[in-house]
Amino acid sequence: MSLASYVQKTYEADREREIASGATNQGGRAPQELSFPPLPSVTYLDPAFRLEARASSGLRVYFTASGDCSLSGSTVRILSAGSCVVTAQHPGNERYAPAPDVVQVLRIRKADQWIIVPDLPFELPFGSGTLVAGMRASSGLDVVVRADGCCTADGASIRFAGVGTCLITGHQPGSANYAAAPIVEHVVTVVKGEQTIQLPDLGERSHGPDDVPFVPVASSGLSVYISTTGPCVFTGEALRVTGTGACAITAEQPGNENYHPAPKAFVTVNVARPESTW
Predict the structure, then answer these.
(1) Domain residues for 13?
(2) DSSP state for residue 178 in the 8-state scheme
(3) What is the CA radius of gyration of the chain?
(4) Phi and psi at residue 145, in whole multiples of 5°?
(5) Which end of the chain has fewer CB atoms at under 10 Å, N or C?
(6) Do 101 and 122 fall into the same domain?
């Protein structure tokens, strides 16, 4: 036992003997009252705190609690938002009658929370792909993400339908222990994207009766327009060789409301006479 504990127990024992003697002199058990100051204002996640109360008899006051808090001696720990009924009492002893209980209700408010927004771009070219709006709440609760304008939200994934303005909103409605977080907003301006054209590598071809497969591709996925000069014709999916010589092919994609025009692509195919087989 520590010196402080020994001194405290000795003091309480001496005090009880003194009180008991006084009560005996008055004949019978003396009445006593409890003084229990108002409880503080608390919030969920607040640290534990001690209760303070006194008995007019000088005897030690005991506490009980029920509801959204717990007690360890006179130390209160907050369990959840809501309320907790705390009672101060003393059952009396052979010299003092039980003190009338003093009951107080501890109101426990919901804790505040806020939404943390990652570094999101303010401008994006169309075609950049999906944007992940990884918002999180300080409480650890899930954030509801919404997207309006030229975009839609699938969870935290933002998909862009075209050029325009995209308003991304984060909301956390709260829970039993947390108040709703302030709504946060972020605006992304989507501008026209760039695109390129990729042409098949035909190398040197021999003049023959069969069409040569030729499918140009734009990175945007838009249709590519082909024009030719020389001994060849583009049929839509293939190159038809009509003679020998240099076949010059030009590919264009003029763009649309979401893409700038692609740089023109050029390729020249030398068509040679087939070697004689005899």
Answers:
(1) 3-109
(2) B
(3) 42
(4) -105, 135
(5) C
(6) no
Whether the predicted model's global pTM rises above the 0.85 cut = no
What is the number of alpha carbons within 13 Å of residue 85 lying toward its C-beta?
A: 6
Residue type (1 letter), 5: S
Within a 10 A sphere around the Cβ of 63, how many other Cβ atoms?
A: 17
- 3-state DSSP assignment of residue 18: helix
Contact between residue 177 and residue 42 where contact means Cβ atoms under 8 Å apart = no
Q: Which residue has the tokens 């070697």?
A: 275
Q: Do 9 and 99 fall into the same domain?
A: yes
CA distance 212 to 33: 106
Residue 191 backbone phi and psi in degrees, to 5: -105, 170
Q: Which of 135, 192, 196, 185 is nearest to 160 (CA)?
A: 192
Are 235 and 210 contacting, i.e. CB atoms less than 8 angstroms apart? no
Q: Residues 186, 219: one domain?
A: no
pLDDT tens-digit map of 145-185 = 999 999 999 999 999 999 999 999 999 999 999 999 999 99
- Express each pLDDT in 55-77 by its tens digit: 999 999 999 999 999 999 999 99
The answer to the question of residue 278 being in a domain is: no
**Nearest by Cα to 121 from 131, 112, 111, 130:** 131
Domain termination site, one of 164, 191, 218: 191
Q: What total number of domains does the chain contain?
A: 3
Within this chain, do residues 86 and 31 fall inside the same structural domain, yes or no?
Answer: yes
Burial group, residue 209, by CB count within 10 angstroms (0-12, 13-18, 19+):
exposed
